[in-house]
Amino acid sequence: MPTQLVSLTFNHNPLSARDGALNIRINARRPVQLPEWVTGRISQSPAAYAVEEAITSTVFIEGRFSGNPNSLVNIRAVPVSPHVLGPIGPLPIGFGPSGDSGPVRLPLRSPNFILSGVNEHEVRWVWSERANEMDAWVPFAETSHRIFTVLRTPTRPWLQQPFVDGNTQLPWADVLQVACVWARGTFSLREAASQITLALFATEDERLRYSCTAGAPSNYSFQDFDCTGFLERMSGGFGRGPNVNCSDCATIVSTFSNAVGCDLSQSRMFNPVTPFAVNTLQLIGQPHFGAVCGFGVFNYHEVAWSGGCTEADDVFDACVAVFAPAAPLLPLTVVIPSGIPFGFPNQGFYRDLLAAPGARSICQARPMSRQRRLVF
User: What structural domains and CATH numbers belong to the chain?
Assistant: First the structure.
């Protein structure tokens, strides 16, 4: 009987991502099926790799084949077009008395992780066999796979353990698909988070807008993150509707950034005694700059924030566009704040871009408010 490919497992070691794929799931409702590729299965599962871990390891996938009992063949997998995982083999495969190869380790001969950055890849291989070196290669299978590459292992709220169907905090492929489009081609964590921030603010088709109704309540992020509803909204469905506030934007940016390896929290700035006045801003989904909700003040403002969420740490704010540099300097340009230190008053950093000159000392970082909302 000719050689047949039975299955391919990318995430062959759920306890470590150093020589294989990350632990992921499809979304809140659907786990990934292992092996990710099985002959005859219509819906194949995706896989994801962390570049930082993969480039320092020998990465392999695990295959299973069937063939003539008690025989030995050489196999190889050649990319249909160049892709991140590269070719496999040639390498020998032996079949036992039942014609089953058992699990076979298939090292990736020349993967291209170091040049991939954040991305989504279509990986296609043509699998061929031959009995000895003098024979021609004979194709026996062609496979197609959806592979995500992220910069590092995802951070909270995303988890890698336990790898069980009920753990909804495993990274979602549906989130990776959006995050890898927003941050495509980035090679640093700051760059990836900045691209995600800019992409969220630039969301078109009136899918998202800041709502001043009833004090601008959280719509997708109270108390945990309705990531399912947000993804539905992004794909053209209703989700929870278009209305968002700063907490929603902070949660979306940090959660999607952390899926590709960033390490951001959601944290607030406020004064416990009084609201703080802000500069003229453009809110997400609104067409023009103006006074925030007609009043020009924030009771609090929440952003995606790096490190300890202090004055020295970077802010990523997809909720507003600001004028830069800070008043009274000129000329002014429009900026979506991303990768900017929060700063102290009159340093010219994020605090000065957001808060009105007389309110900069009132707009205070509150690291004790930092959190990472769970996803559902």
Answer: 4-150 (2.60.40), 188-371 (no CATH)
